[in-house]
TrEMBL record:
Keywords: DNA-binding, Plasmid, Repressor, Transcription, Transcription regulation. Residues 3-58 form the HTH deoR-type domain. It comes from Rhizobium indigoferae. It holds the Pfam family DeoRC. GO terms for molecular function: DNA binding. InterPro entries: Carb_Metab_HTH_regulators, DeoR-like_C, DeoR_HTH, NagB/RpiA_transferase-like, Tscrpt_reg_HTH_DeoR_CS, WH-like_DNA-bd_sf, WH_DNA-bd_sf. This is DeoR/GlpR family DNA-binding transcription regulator. Transmembrane segments: none annotated.
């Protein structure tokens, strides 16, 4: 088996299980542990995973978020539910900002239901899907392309955002703890903050599994958002904490209506 094929199979296992074990991988592919170490090193360098003792994981850490190619294959039901709920905040004729991320990419495609719209985004997946669509005025933000986030980031992105205004911005985050939203990448944080500053209203999108976690950089206070949407109710203690802080959490239903 070629190295590229083996590494793709490792990625597939990570999508299914979130973690892989070094010994199991060596047995599965009938190769040495050193070969698996090199495979994991390659994938870690590419930003796909992070190595842990005895294996690897795609679970987010304070300085790690898995590659876009991993995230776009995970939690589709939750993403659809949150996107549908977020869509209720959009009316035809609006100017909408959507940030990077696989969750945002799902919402970006759904926005076709609300055309005509002006859509501002640094999300390459949305750009590719919506380019040429009638009823969508697409403003694609330039900058330095990040394969890890499948988005354009940096000074050029931030400067463009400072000269634009939107009715609403949809911002996703991989970590929420207490009253704060976090992200592990400083370039992504700056782009998200620029979108928040350039929008009349803002909506935060966060998977409930990411609530109770932190990352390297504080992105924003939850009070900065007009709406916060998640896919399932977090622990009662978290809901109580939000209530005391006056933070309203909207729970998107992942169940089909009966």
């Amino acid at each position: 088996m070629r190295r590229e094929e083996r590494q793709q199979l490792i990625v597939n296992l990570l999508v299914e299980n979130k973690t892989v074990d070094l010994d199991d991988l060596a047995d599965r592919f009938t190769v040495s542990k050193m070969t698996i170490h090199r495979d994991l090193d390659d994938l870690e360098q590419a930003g796909v995973l992070r190595k842990v003792r005895g294996g690897a994981t795609i679970d987010a850490g304070t300085q790690f978020e898995s590659d876009f190619r991993i995230r776009e294959r995970q939690g589709n039901e939750a993403k659809l539910a949150m996107a549908e709920t977020a869509l209720e905040l959009v009316e035809p004729g609006m100017t909408v900002m959507v940030n990077d991320g696989s969750m945002a990419a799902v919402l970006g495609e759904m926005l076709l239901q609300k055309r005509p719209l002006t859509l501002i985004t640094n999300n390459a997946a949305i750009m590719e899907r919506l380019k040429g669509e009638t009823g969508i005025t697409l403003i694609a933000l330039g900058g330095i392309y990040s394969a890890k986030f499948n988005a354009y980031l940096g000074v050029v992105t931030e400067e463009a955002l400072s000269r634009l205004r939107a009715d609403i911005a949809f911002i996703s985050t991989p970590a929420v703890s207490g009253r704060l939203a976090y992200h592990m990448d400083d370039n992504v944080v700056r782009a998200k903050r620029a979108m928040i500053a350039s929008s009349t209203r803002t909506c935060l999108l966060v998977n409930h599994q990411r609530i109770g976690h932190t990352a390297l950089h504080v992105m924003a206070d939850l009070a900065d958002f007009d709406a916060i949407i998640t896919d399932s109710a977090p622990d009662a203690a978290v809901l109580e904490e939000f209530g005391k802080a006056g933070i309203t959490l909207t729970i998107a239903s992942t169940q089909d209506p009966t």
